[in-house]
Structures are given as C-alpha cells and as structure tokens.
Amino acid sequence: MPYIKIELTREGVTRKQKQQLIKGVTDLVTDVLNKDPHLTHVVIQEINLDDWGYAGEQVSVLREKGITADKK
Fold it and tell me: The whole model's pTM is what?
C-alpha cells in the first residue's frame, strides 16, 4: 500500500492542479512499481511560507525579495 506525501508551500495551488498531481503520482507508482492504484494513497500538505525555510531564510522573505521556484 504506497503512501506518497507531497509537501508544497501554500501559494495558491488550485484544486485542479492538486488533482493532476494525485493522478500523475498514482499513475507513476502504478507504472513503475506495478502497484494497485486503489491501494495508493496520496496526501498533499500545504505549508505556510513563514514555516518553510531555504538557505537560512523564510520562504516568505524570499518571496518578498522576488525569489520564486517558478521556471524562467
């Protein structure tokens, strides 16, 4: 019974995007590990920007500086 946890910063990920993540990860585990999709659990946890840090800074501060994880 696979359990996959996806942690993201809370920055407006839509319901549709979450559904795409859940479907995509489930399909990947099914294809690669031959696991039953009906027994595969995916949890998405959103973390407040103040509660996530990178390189010694809170992500909220990095966003204020214009630093994002978006593709250029």
Answer: 0.87
